[in-house]
Specification:
Blueprint (H helix, E strand, L loop, with lengths): L8 H23 L9 E3 L10 H10 L4 E3 L3 H6 L12 H18 L4 E5 L5 H12 L7 E5 L30 H10 L7 E5 L2 H4 L8 E6 L4 H11 L3 E9 L6 H13 L7 E2 L5 E4 L3
Parallel strand pairs: 3-4, 3-6, 4-5, 6-7
Antiparallel strand pairs: 1-2, 7-9, 8-9
Bound molecules: S-adenosylmethionine (SAM).
Amino acid sequence: MTSGRNPTADDETENRSRQRDLYVDLLMGCLTRELFLTEETHDVDLSEWPGDTDMLRSVLKANRWRLMRTGGRHAARAEGHDWPPTAETMVGRQRLADVRWCIDQVMAEGVVGDFIETGVWRGGVTILMKGMLEAWGDTRRRVWVADSFRGLPVPNVEEYPADEGHDMSKVRTLQVSADEVRANFERYGLLDERVCFLEGWFADTLATAPIDRLAILRLDGDLYESTTDALIALYPKLSVGGYVLVDDYGAWEPCRKAVDDYRATHGITDEIVPVDWTGIHWRRSN
Ligand SMILES: C[S@@+](CC[C@H](N)C(=O)[O-])C[C@H]1O[C@@H](n2cnc3c(N)ncnc32)[C@H](O)[C@@H]1O
């Protein structure tokens, strides 16, 4: 202290809050790779190449080369518009900042319950959740990490017609194993017994998961089926004052319909707050 006086309780609180902010800022910059965008490499999409690419393609093929560009795009990463090559999350800074804001509210107000994301991909959002628990000094809440860890299901269009035409089940980039996600937690020093993996299809894992209460329920499973399975199993466990965050509400019609149908069926009228071009959240009021 340069003022020569002893630190007060207010000083201590301010210091703790600043330390927390610095750590969470850094964590978010790493998880999105925004801090390292200039070092990123991306495959060049030849369909965007001006002019004839036949010669280029044959040279690349003959030499088993790939054409890469360096540098990620700040706007895309801020808004979660690209699928990053190495980042642990694709949701982008704005939606990650929304996760942070909701967590800060429930921690500051003592809203009871664990945190969960259904649909974690490489785990980045759940890593942020656990990092924030550490930053708040919480030693009791758990972070639930729910995913098939082998990508999206083949749409069951007989039961969920809204998913027709949205078959992403063969998209390799979306297939990330539980071991890879565990390794990502370990990279940040955040893997312990309070990080709980729910491995399998949501329809098989969520309803029977040993979760008592939730304060944060984040849905990122894209499909009508995946969104509705998560809401039916988990919304009744959400504390009053807790938040539901939906990643795909704006961008994916099946997800939006699942949310709208669930809210209509259960008479939920809590205000939907837009986060960016696709993400939303609402706070449970009763
Ligand atoms: C768009 S990714 C999630 C992105 C992630 N939240 C992030 O931070 O980058 C969708 C994830 O949902 C999972 N998923 C979708 N539907 C599922 C289901 N019915 N059961 C289990 N996992 C599912 C996929 O395996 C995939 O990892």
